Automatic annotation (TrEMBL):
ATP-binding keyword on record: no
Name listed for the protein in its UniProt record: Protein translocase subunit SecY
Binding partners and assembly: Component of the Sec protein translocase complex. Heterotrimer consisting of SecY, SecE and SecG subunits. The heterotrimers can form oligomers, although 1 heterotrimer is thought to be able to translocate proteins. Interacts with the ribosome. Interacts with SecDF, and other proteins may be involved. Interacts with SecA.
Purpose of the protein: The central subunit of the protein translocation channel SecYEG. Consists of two halves formed by TMs 1-5 and 6-10. These two domains form a lateral gate at the front which open onto the bilayer between TMs 2 and 7, and are clamped together by SecE at the back. The channel is closed by both a pore ring composed of hydrophobic SecY resides and a short helix (helix 2A) on the extracellular side of the membrane which forms a plug. The plug probably moves laterally to allow the channel to open. The ring and the pore may move independently.
Domain of life where this protein originates: Bacteria
Principal subcellular localization: membrane
Source species of the chain: Glutamicibacter halophytocola
Length: 434
């Protein structure tokens, strides 16, 4: 393994790409700790030391920003606006025919969709930045902390903060695209990976300090098992064999080859978990903005607060059902069996034992519906691990080995290693992995 890594750095082109990627990552991590203008950094640190935040959606966004959100830094919004914009653009293909047409136009259409995603990212960053500044100015970001986070809440300072947070998101988006173009791997995914990985030491340190060495070792062993499970499932495929008939084109005979359609067990990736987490965080936000003047809550808000807690069995049940539902929904809009069957028929391909055309589409739909269910159960199981750990170990709700964090880290890690391996095999007979 070490010789393979040394071989990577001995390849000049690959070494330059790796160093460029590491340089962008270093700049990104520095920006996480630069406070936004108008923020009292010392008061923010004191409020963070108290250990209480708004939780819910903002703790979820804080995970993707590498801790920048709750520090109200210039990169506080992180990559989350871009993720949301990408998902919205992808979903709009179902309801807006123009977006679907652009998707089928190849590279030119994809470039146009990417431009729309950028515009939507800036708009969402502006909206989320305004919300974050409002929470920081009113003290709702840290309800248990009475220290002022924004000493000067004049209009000029508020506008400057919102513009800075929006510009920070634009800069992160640009850096991610630079990594994709000139570095290794998908830039946006790499930045998300780094943001999540940066929280592992503090999460494990809190477990060691609060629960002791034996629990710490037990969590590490459980973590290794979970990582192995995630790697196994993420690499699992249902391969559908496809045979192409021989055709005569001019004086040449083409076709007659055998291949397969690889259908992943988890085709929805981490998107259903993100959808379910975001929706189930809304009740907590609704409770927060419906307090009485004396700080008490109405009866309906108290009931909602009690049953929307992450340790509530009702929350876990709703979380599981929503993940399963969103898994089927997302697979349905991203994989079109009719389109796949038509393309196979167009190029003379067929599944052995299945007629081309509509029977092929029905067979693909049958297979997809069968493999989506275990994939959705797997997603729900991994997503519930932090909630169960919070109940059993009294660990922090950002328990590292589970939920979106481990799914994203393993997925991005596997994809990046594959890209490095492919580039190594282009230059040497041996890749990174044997």
């Amino acid at each position: 393994m070490f010789s393979a890594i040394a071989r990577v750095f001995r390849t000049p082109d690959l070494r330059n790409k790796l160093l460029f990627t590491l340089g962008i990552i270093a700049i990104y991590r520095v920006g996480v700790f630069i406070p936004a203008p108008g923020i009292d950094y010392s008061n923010v640190q004191q409020c963070l030391a108290m250990g209480e935040t708004t939780g819910g959606l903002y703790s979820f966004v804080n995970l993707f920003s590498g801790g920048a959100l709750l520090q109200v830094s210039i990169f506080a919004m992180g990559i989350m606006p871009y993720i949301t914009a990408s998902i919205i653009t992808q979903l709009l293909r179902v309801v807006i025919p123009h977006f679907e047409t652009l998707h089928k136009e190849g590279q030119a259409g994809q470039a146009k969709l990417t431009q729309y995603t950028r515009y939507l990212t800036i708009a969402l960053a502006l909206l989320q930045g305004t919300t974050l500044v409002t929470l920081a100015r009113t003290g709702s970001l840290f309800p248990s902390c009475s220290l002022p986070l924004v000493p000067d809440d004049s209009l000029i300072v508020i506008l400057l903060m919102v513009i800075t947070l929006t510009a920070g998101t634009g800069l992160i988006m640009w850096m991610g695209e630079l990594i994709t173009e000139r570095g290794i791997g998908n830039g946006m995914s790499i930045l998300i990976f780094i943001s999540i990985a940066s929280g592992f030491p503090s999460a494990m340190g809190s477990i060691l300090q609060a629960q002791g060495v034996m629990t710490f070792i037990g969590v590490l062993l459980i973590g290794l098992l979970i990582v192995g499970l995630v790697v196994f499932v993420e690499q699992s495929q249902r391969r559908i064999p496809v045979q192409y008939a021989k055709r005569t084109v001019g004086r040449r005979t083409v076709g007659g080859t055998s291949t397969y359609i690889p259908l992943k067990l988890n085709m929805a990736n981490v998107i259903p978990v993100i959808f379910a987490s975001s929706i189930l965080a809304l009740p907590q936000m609704l409770v927060q903005f419906n307090q009485n003047d004396d700080g008490t809550l109405p009866a309906w808000a108290m009931w909602l607060q009690e049953h929307s807690s992450t340790s509530s069995p009702w929350y876990m049940l709703a979380y599981t059902l929503m993940i399963i539902g969103f898994a089927y929904f997302y697979v349905a809009i991203t994989f079109n069996p009719v389109e796949v069957a038509d393309n196979m028929k167009k190029y003379g391909g067929f599944i052995p034992g299945i007629r081309a055309g509509r029977p092929t589409a029905e067979y693909l739909q049958y297979v997809i519906s069968r493999i989506t269910f275990p994939g959705a159960l797997y997603l729900a199981f991994v997503a519930l691990i932090p909630l169960i750990a919070f109940v059993l170990f009294n660990a922090d709700q950002s328990f590292p080995f589970g939920g979106t964090s481990i799914l994203i880290m393993v997925g991005v890690g596997l994809e990046t290693v594959k890209q490095i391996n492919a580039q190594m095999q282009q230059r040497n007979y041996e890749g990174l992995l044997r």
